[in-house]
Amino acid sequence: MRIDDVAFGGEGVGRVDGFVVFVPLVIEGETVEAEITEVKKSFARANLIKVVEPAESRIEPKCSYFGDCGGCQYQHMAYEAQLEMKQKQITALFERIGGFSEDKVAPVVACPQSFNYRNRILIRSQWNGKAKKLLVGFRKRNSHWVVEIDDCKIAEPALNAQIHEVRNNPPNKGGVKVNLRVAPEDWIVPDHSFFQTNYFMLPRMIEVVRRIFQSSGSDYLIDAYCGVGFLGIELAGLAKRYAGVEYDHRAILAARENAAKFGGDNGEFVEGRTEHLLPELLAKFEDGNTTIILDPPRKGCAPTVIGQLRETRPAQIIYVSCHPATLARDLNALCADGVYRLEQVVPLDMFPHTQHVECVADLRFNSST
Predict the structure, then answer these.
(1) pTM value?
(2) Roughly how many angstroms between the first and final C-alpha of the chain, as a whole number?
(3) How confident is the model at residue 369, as a pLDDT?
(4) Rounded Cα–Cα distance for residues 29 and 201 (Å)
(5) What confidence tens digit (pLDDT) does each residue in 52-64 have?
(6) According to the model, what pLDDT value does residue 229 have?
(7) Active-site residue 226, yes or no?
(8) Which CATH number fits domain 91-111+195-365: 3.40.50.150, 3.50.50.60, 3.30.2350.10, 3.90.660.10?
């Protein structure tokens, strides 16, 4: 079977007599042998048995757990090929879900370090009754079972040292999740508050967001879903005034401390849900001279927020998302009836060797509507 494409999520798309078959761990253009494991009405799933004709970009994975562990999907592929594939996947998603043309998607910004970059991982424990032992590691691919691991090739070295500590002093039962983290230098981040998981890409992300914000000419900035205030504070020097909103109490306290520490004293951080406080914050600034940053959870923005923005119409929306499908959906809603127009989407490879990718979208209000 020939692999025609690799869908967003990592599964290769092949066909048998026109019937779609999804196969993991393959590369577009390869010919493979696969074993059907599940048949649905319009597609089937299969396990890879053998690569008959490998792609030029196929390489030997660095990690011995690859293919068994569910953390990575693309270690069998050269990094440059991963970047090209991710751009193709994002372009297809934006066209299919958002109705946007492919020229709106910029090339994926590469990570300067494609291994040992993750600063946060989640270790799981699970009791294996058959083997009568406690498993400590990550989830298996397409399974709720745990695969034991000693180290993770995409985690920072300090985290791998912590994995050994967990293995040497495991939880006393299964079903326990252990959150391991390398805290950012200087920034105050409570244990369970959000912060980007790749410190090597943070300068590149800020560079993209700063360039997009500056190009709008806005004087005012609202950082919605602001977490510990990272984006708002980094851009504070470019704005006359700014505000951040976040419902995580500990994160807001940290944001205020971070602002005092890094000189973001021309703004404020308020505690509450974006959908509750956004109209009040927007009313403080001039709509035609305000940029709003949206950095919501993976599920995207609440429909209420989309409606509020379409009604109040700030000059620019910078939407940061780790889930391109929900981003395309939300951008489609914001751009409906020509209220906003999409200038560009810049993908950033915050998660090399995995299916995930971060995107920064630049939306502008269409004053003619």
Answers:
(1) 0.94
(2) 50
(3) 59
(4) 30
(5) 999 999 999 999 9
(6) 96
(7) no
(8) 3.40.50.150
